[in-house]
Amino acid sequence: MIPHTTRQFIDSLIDYYISEAASYKQLARTYSEEVEDIDANAFGIIVGCIYSGFLQAYQNQKQKPLLEDTQEFTQMIKTRAAQIKRSILDAKI
After folding, report:
1. What is the per-residue pLDDT for 34?
2. Count of structural domains, the chain
3. 92 pLDDT more than 90
4. Of 34, 45, 51, 87, which has the fewest beta carbons less than 10 angstroms from its beta carbon?
5. In which domain of life is the source organism classified (predicted)?
């Protein structure tokens, strides 16, 4: 199980990336010649950044996430995926 403080940290990361979706959509647009779906690309970049933060939180504690932790992280993202997608779709760039 993901420790409470790490879970709060991940939630705050999700909130941050939702609030900064326009920046990540702009970054995704940079690769529009290689990737046709800018919104899906932005979603992937955001989730990748959040996942990196998840791994860094464990590394800072000199731990590795267990399979169950990774599954719980995935569920956290699934639960908030609609919010992330909406923030990307609503982003004005």
Report:
1. 85
2. 1
3. no
4. 34
5. Archaea
Average pLDDT score over residue span 87-92 = 93
The residue behind tokens 């995935």 is 74
Averaged confidence pLDDT in the chain: 95
> What DSSP string describes 25-85?
HHHHHTTTTT-S-HHHHHHHHHHHHHHHHHHHHHHHTT----HHHHHHHHHHHHHHHHHHH
Confidence of residue 36 (pLDDT cuts 50, 70, 90): confident
- Burial of 25 (C-beta count, 10 Å sphere; 0-12/13-18/19+): buried
Domain that holds residue 11: 4-90
Q: State both tokens at 76.
A: 């956290």
Vertex 57, ends 31 and 54: CA angle to 5°?
Answer: 40
Cβ proximity of 74 and 65 under 8 Å: no
